């Protein structure tokens, strides 16, 4: 078998983590819920992907499918490869050697994501003992190192504490230490700072960035807040109703946002440097029901520029990873939705040109 | 913590007063004289008076109560009307047997119910869950004296399977193996009624725990499902089960009468049963008070102990 | 001809099979409930007949009429066989139902009336009244129930009245706690405050406002308590401390047949099965009521 093993060296031309046409469908009593529907992306070592969207856009389900922690009613299809090794459709037992070992995750709420009745050291060492085969003593020593690394004072004392004896920020540092335990290649932070105070939020984000740079990990930063991911990512994917609607290198996205939804999201971020009239605007309406989704663009109902084409036909996202991709018939910058149905729509589908930007 | 303990124990005093007072009043409810049966044929009314005086039944209830409490505090629960031996000694001899039976039954129930509870919670709504749920609701409706017959018929019957002997109690201090062998069926009969309750309780607590975020965290570490269930989910789900186990132990100590009288086990329940049939009031009194005392104290301890096992509560 | 006949039948079969299947799947949980109701109706019928029209039974409960220890389903109309003295199991089980039902129903009614009243009074007045009532409840609950009954049977000659009285006293604290808890929950609602503000007296508030709203919880609890009471009475008769012979009771029938277990198991298992089915049915009905009214678990 020429299959690469866990320790196999990276296949040339394979990015560190690559998802292709990933789908997570849930068999709910009401019908099929397409929580994630055809998502592709790639991350290199040392690179950060920002995953942005409202709650219910499928971003959490997407990262959970990477970690094998979807609800039991979920059917996962498509492909996720870590260093060329497929994770979708392989027996759980095999995939478990990857989860928590080479891909690890930091969860949203540090108050609930730690087991309240187990001491910190137990929770820190169990994955090291499982994946790295460390003995109790070695694992404990490493746990102290990790706690020091994430900036916890008195790590020896803290490691013997129960979670409720630590503050929220401290607990999130512990969960980061837990995720780092096996020196993972990919770190996923699922709204890792949402539940924290603003000042603590910053510290945690800086910590994550620092550790990532130090270790050359790939990272996925999930957030509902474009502001959080703005300065800390290499590429950003905006999700809406289970699909990516815009995906681009970070700088490009902020300079030339194309999708109407991204535009709306940016409009919803509070800023102090803009005139009062342009203060945050809520996006009108609410996210669509994913079970009864119609065939057109999912955002059409809430979009100011939507026309019949939008309601009838779903715009496709480009296939070239690494370029500025967006799924919109009437992207920002091409004004006057009327008149240019077929031409501009197809043009946008085929190859979104970065040069095409018209000055406002 | 100490204040909580003090308050709980203080609250026990009026309850204990009523319990002991009611037991002391027991002889007054007897039709005729409690000691009448001790008299042989041809005895005179004076003999009766003498006996009543000897056992203190000629005094008024309040006087008797104070005397009784004073004696009880020094460990003297009076004399058996039948054997004229110390009631306390009889209880001290019989209590370990009953305690062993109750603990054995409790352990048995937990050993069966905990895996079942975890399993049904992990597979909630599935076929396993429904089958076990159905069996356990049936089991819940089988009284102990019926399960005794079912067990004896199938497992201690020369015509079916003679795996156990229905009689022949041996003290644990005399022959451990023989003791366990004989105690198995009676303990199982007691345990059968508790298993469905434990399983249901653990299942519902487990279901709540499995919804928690920290279970996702544990699963995201690549830990196996059994490991997550038993190491991460079981402990935070077991607090009410532990509490109920404590209460159950108290109930079992007071509920062994049926199995002890059927299997001829020389425990408290059998002693009480014989005393009732023999109208041996002091023995009944002593046994009732001891059992009620254990029951009440155990309930209070469990109440306090609950705050000791959960680190979250302990911190407050 | 034959083809003509089979043709529609073939067309019909899948449809009817599907209908039957979906019907079964839908009705499945309530099948148990209907069975339980039917069984309880049967038990009540037996109890009622033995009370008012014992002549309908082919043989009396206290007279031998044939061979002893006949197995069930060997003859008609005595299809449940005979006991160790050749008496009719059928008649004796019906009379046993009478004992069980009277004991359980009377105890529950007394428990509901006395316990419910005490609970409502405690909930309305709170303070010292509540403390005193709680104290007596706690003291009564401090005895394991069977132990208290045994203690009483040491001084009273067992009879239907004494057993019923003892069990009734034991059911009181459970109902007191239940009505108190649910009445306190009710009395914090606005409509009670409104009634008080309008000058309604304690009697009016207790009986017109609090009582009707505690009813559902009390009703479903009563059914479960009946099951517990039947087991308790059975335990006492099993120990020979209940209704004296020759009056039959289920526990007593089990007790008197216990030495025949290995040779004539039906002697023991026929009354056992009747007792089990009754307790099971009451539990099923009680659970259903509780689910319907969403009442939380309370211990007797």
From TrEMBL, chain A:
It holds the Pfam family ABC_tran. It comes from the Bacteria. Keywords: ATP-binding, Cell membrane, Membrane, Nucleotide-binding, Transport. Residues 17-266 form the ABC transporter domain. InterPro entries: AAA+_ATPase, ABC_Ni/Peptide_Import, ABC_transporter-like_ATP-bd, ABC_transporter-like_CS, Oligopep_ABC_C, P-loop_NTPase. It is a peripheral membrane protein. Coiled coil: none annotated. GO terms for cellular component: plasma membrane. One of its GO terms (biological process) is peptide transport. Its main location: membrane. Residues 348-360 have a biased composition (Basic and acidic residues). The keyword Transport applies. Residues 337-360 are annotated as: Disordered. It is found in: Cell membrane. One of its GO terms (molecular function) is ATP binding. Residues 337-346 have a biased composition (Low complexity). Belongs to the ABC transporter superfamily. PANTHER family: DIPEPTIDE TRANSPORT ATP-BINDING PROTEIN DPPD (PTHR43297:SF2), OLIGOPEPTIDE TRANSPORT ATP-BINDING PROTEIN APPD (PTHR43297). This is Dipeptide/oligopeptide/nickel ABC transporter ATP-binding protein. It comes from Embleya hyalina.
From TrEMBL, chain B:
It is a multi-pass membrane protein. Signal peptide: none annotated. InterPro entries: BPD_transp_1_N (IPR045621), MetI-like (IPR000515), MetI-like_sf (IPR035906). Keywords: Cell membrane, Membrane, Transmembrane, Transmembrane helix, Transport. The chain crosses the membrane at residues 101-119, 131-156, 176-193, 239-263, 283-309. GO terms for biological process: transmembrane transport. Gene3D superfamilies: MetI-like. It is found in: Cell membrane. It comes from the Bacteria. Pfam families: BPD_transp_1 (PF00528), BPD_transp_1_N (PF19300). Residues 95-302 form the ABC transmembrane type-1 domain. One of its GO terms (cellular component) is plasma membrane. Coiled coil: none annotated. Belongs to the binding-protein-dependent transport system permease family. This is Peptide ABC transporter permease.
UniProtKB/TrEMBL annotation, chain C:
Residues 97-286 form the ABC transmembrane type-1 domain. It comes from the Bacteria. The keyword Transmembrane helix applies. SUPFAM superfamilies: MetI-like (SSF161098). It is a multi-pass membrane protein. The keyword Endoplasmic reticulum does not apply. Keywords: Cell membrane, Membrane, Transmembrane, Transmembrane helix, Transport. The chain crosses the membrane at residues 31-53, 99-123, 218-243, 263-286. One of its GO terms (biological process) is transmembrane transport. Coiled coil: none annotated. Belongs to the binding-protein-dependent transport system permease family. This is Peptide ABC transporter permease. It comes from Embleya hyalina.
